Amino acid sequence: MSILVFVESAEGQIKKTSLEAVAYAHALGSPVTAIALGAVDQGALEALGKYGAQKVLHASDARLNEGVIQAYTSVLVKAMQDENADILVLANSSLGTPVAARVAIKTGASLATNVTDLPETSSGFVVKRSIYTGKAFAKVELKNQKKVIALKKNAAEAKEVGSNVTVTPYAVTLSDADFAVKILSSEKATGEVLLPEANIVVSGGRGMKGAEHWGILEELAKTLHAATGCSKPVSDMGWRPHHEHVGQTGVKVAPQLYIAVGISGAIQHLAGVNSSKYIVVINKDADAPFFKAADYGIVGDAFDVVPKLTEALKAAK
Amino acid sequence: MKILVCITHVPDTTSKINFTDNNTKFDPTGVQFIIGPYDDYALARAIEIKEANAGTTVTVLNVGTADTEPTIRKALAIGADDAVRVNAEPTDSLFVATQIAEHAKSVGYDLILMGRESIDYNSGVVHGIVGELLGMPSVSPVMKLDIEGTKAKLAREIEGGKEYVEVSLPFVAGCQEPIAEWKIPNMRGIMSARTKPLKVVEPKAVDSGVKLQQFELPPPKGAVKMIAADNVAELVSLLKNEAKVI
Ligand SMILES: Cc1cc2nc3c(=O)[nH]c(=O)nc-3n(C[C@H](O)[C@H](O)[C@H](O)COP(=O)(O)OP(=O)(O)OC[C@H]3O[C@@H](n4cnc5c(N)ncnc54)[C@H](O)[C@@H]3O)c2cc1C
Ligand SMILES: Cc1cc2nc3c(=O)[nH]c(=O)nc-3n(C[C@H](O)[C@H](O)[C@H](O)COP(=O)(O)OP(=O)(O)OC[C@H]3O[C@@H](n4cnc5c(N)ncnc54)[C@H](O)[C@@H]3O)c2cc1C
């Protein structure tokens, strides 16, 4: 028996959340096989060994360079058979979650997404998952022998436990039906820290007063190597792209540090940030509800405080 | 064209979440229930497509107990033509998806729209499972959906951007903003919703692979530490030495 881990990449590098998935599988105890699909840097694949993979498969078929849900499903179902894997672990994402759903049905597996912790196995295989948009957790038993587990960010810590492994090419057979959804084109931010992956997020709200004022937040983000996020009205008004919108109806982030500037802290916004380890709130209104959810707060004008904070961070480096 | 929209009946986004019976039951006391916000986007887009294409019908489906009927009526008031309620407690994603797939098989829809995820269990999987059960493609999360004859062009959100895809009907889509603007029922909609057909059907048994054991609430948040606006150096020091996050 082995555990299969589907790892995703961005710009040739393995995503941090996928390294966490490898670490999670490693902690489960059985031999871990990681599989990557499409174009990925060879060095990044070899390094998966360091995080706990005994074996790395690479399906480099160019048709898999883009994340086609059904094609990825077919490859992973076959790989589970070939590797005699009862468990598939992957990171929740716009690709990983729908793929997990389809693989679970094809393999008759118990399925859990948004999993936040290693399982308890004293009686049955019980995982904890985040529900009600981070406002609660549910412990669910996965009863079938086969299991598909999709992880929320930070479910396990990616740390080095081994050394590089050689990568085995993995041949795939794909049918036309696997490509029923045809990807025509894509627009992707490059060279930026991806919001769902980021350790630090700098987020702005309506208090920033306009798209033209985002420079000070970008400067702060750059200093911290952080991703930028925003509240819903900010993306609704087109000040920032939609994929930066954080909250109940947007991206749910789980960084080490979330810095909210000029955001009031409506419950729907908090739903997207309540898994952050630390929250800093900068708001000119001392009664802004966000302060109740914060670890550190500054009452002040963003246009005054943010540049000063950036300077202080640069000075402290 | 026949469109099916699957809706959840979920606590309003401002609800405080509590549990009873030794943390094994959701406590609905004081909770207002709504159509899931993502499902509401799916419904709004379905109504837009119906308005632009004569002869299109929109059916809404919910897997739930009789308590969900006011939520279903609201979807009818927004403009759906008829509704189906599968009479059961929605216990897990596979159970729900199986009921949706069974109904869809009996009718034969051109398009099955859902939300990208429910806001109670947040699984984000029912569209994928229904797609798999029906042998149809599924696409999620969808930000834009245009029907062009027997095909559709969609925009799907991906981390850090979006992807434009094409797919033939029929298929399943999990929707999110900005696919359409939420619609508010008007008086005429509310009046006509009372007499629109709402069919209740019994569920099919499903051998589910998951079992809920217990709920848990996160630990309460500690008090906020306030720092003077003219002393940002202190914040830097706290982040460095106390939180150890920079
Ligand atoms: C179903 C539903 C889903 C929703 N989903 C989301 C979601 O996913 N994400 C989301 O964000 N919202 C969501 N919302 C909207 C949410 O309710 C709030 O309206 C929204 O979060 C408010 O955004 P904001 O904090 O940027 O703006 P505001 O509430 O207008 O707050 C602006 C803040 O900026 C402060 N400010 C002003 N000037 C300055 C200055 N110079 N310096 C410092 N501070 C300043 C003000 O004191 C104020 O606190 C949803 C709403 C509904 C009904
Ligand atoms: C009283 C109660 C008890 C529950 N007990 C359990 C339990 O024991 N174990 C467990 O796993 N879950 C349980 N649930 C969760 C509930 O079953 C979920 O609503 C269901 O699993 C589907 O949610 P999801 O997160 O999987 O949907 P997602 O995959 O996130 O939903 C995607 C989309 O599917 C559609 N959809 C989802 N649910 C329905 C529905 N019921 N009717 C119509 N369309 C729908 C919607 O369009 C939705 O936007 C319980 C819920 C309630 C209210």
UniProtKB/TrEMBL annotation, chain A:
The keyword Iron-sulfur does not apply. This is Electron transfer flavoprotein subunit alpha/FixB family protein. Keywords: Electron transport, Transport. It comes from the Bacteria. PANTHER family: ELECTRON TRANSFER FLAVOPROTEIN ALPHA, ELECTRON TRANSFER FLAVOPROTEIN SUBUNIT ALPHA, MITOCHONDRIAL. Residues 3-183 form the Electron transfer flavoprotein alpha/beta-subunit N-terminal domain. Pfam families: ETF, ETF_alpha. InterPro entries: DHS-like_NAD/FAD-binding_dom, ETF_a/b_N, ETF_a/FixB, ETF_asu_C, Rossmann-like_a/b/a_fold. SUPFAM superfamilies: Adenine nucleotide alpha hydrolases-like, DHS-like NAD/FAD-binding domain. Belongs to the ETF alpha-subunit/FixB family.
Automatic annotation (TrEMBL), chain B:
The keyword Nucleotide-binding does not apply. Keywords: Electron transport, Transport. The keyword tRNA-binding does not apply. It comes from the Bacteria. PANTHER family: ELECTRON TRANSFER FLAVOPROTEIN BETA-SUBUNIT, ELECTRON TRANSFER FLAVOPROTEIN SUBUNIT BETA. Belongs to the ETF beta-subunit/FixA family. This is Electron transfer flavoprotein subunit beta. The lineage of its organism: Bacteria, Pseudomonadati, Bacteroidota, Cytophagia, Cytophagales.
